[in-house]
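2024-03-11 09:14:02 DEBUG pipeline.ingest accepted 1 chain
2024-03-11 09:14:02 DEBUG pipeline.ingest length=291
2024-03-11 09:14:03 DEBUG pipeline.predict start
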Amino acid sequence: MDGGNHSVVSEFVFLGLTHSWEIQLLLLVFSSVLYVASMTGNILTLFSVTINPHLHSPMYFLLASLSFIDLGACSATSPKMIYDLFRKRKVISFGGCIAQIFFIHVIGGVEMVLLIAVAFDRYVAICKPLHYLTIMSPQMCILFLVAAWALGIIHSLFQLAFIVNLPFCGPNVLDSFYCDLLRLLRLACTDTYRLQFMVTVNSGFICVGSFSILLLSYVFILFTVWKHSSGSSSKALSILSAHITVVLFFFGPTMFVYTWPHPNSQLDKFLALSDAVLTPFFKSRHLHIQE
């Protein structure tokens, strides 16, 4: 190598999920159906919120924003994974791998902030209904959206800063179906133990912190609904249960990946697959409940 920041690796090889052709065929059908269903559900949500004047409210603005980011979540890893199920040799270019990591972390960061925004919206609607339109003004909604994208991009660039100057001279095999930052760090031709620790702490802290905020918020909201039980409480509980389900679907696999001590396990692959195809599908079904 000419310099410490030059890589001789031009592509990475994925081992994929399984070597069994029968299981790959099953995964191909399963993943394709869920991908199409997720994309269709989120596109319909965006279309409905855009053209229906009755849905031009803060809550639906945030849900439409979540649907938009979910389109990215569906497409960050799933199309490549589905395409690779046809191929014996599953490869991705070095630049493609870096781009995939960038978009995965941007989408994750944006989604965490938007889920917090949705929780705040529900808190104001249930606990301070008379001040709802004043607090959840168009300016507040735009502020949430800008903050979500700014934090998502900053978080992703911070993560990529760990690998841009690392030398990659081989091996180039990733035991996964997508480019995972921690696995990529282990392939660098230098000691990356500290970098792996910093990546884990950074992502783990953001993920666990966001989940804790959401959990406490929904506990407080549920307590408020229980205290002021009325005829509309069942509807509020139905909406909240859908939101809590989405939060658990989104944060469960992510937190497990960054806290489980054996990241190369088959369980980790299953959780990654669940996060790639199952979570967007269930989110598109559970979160977009009409008020």
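2024-03-11 09:14:41 DEBUG pipeline.report Residues 1-6 have pLDDT under 50 and may be disordered.
2024-03-11 09:14:41 DEBUG pipeline.predict end
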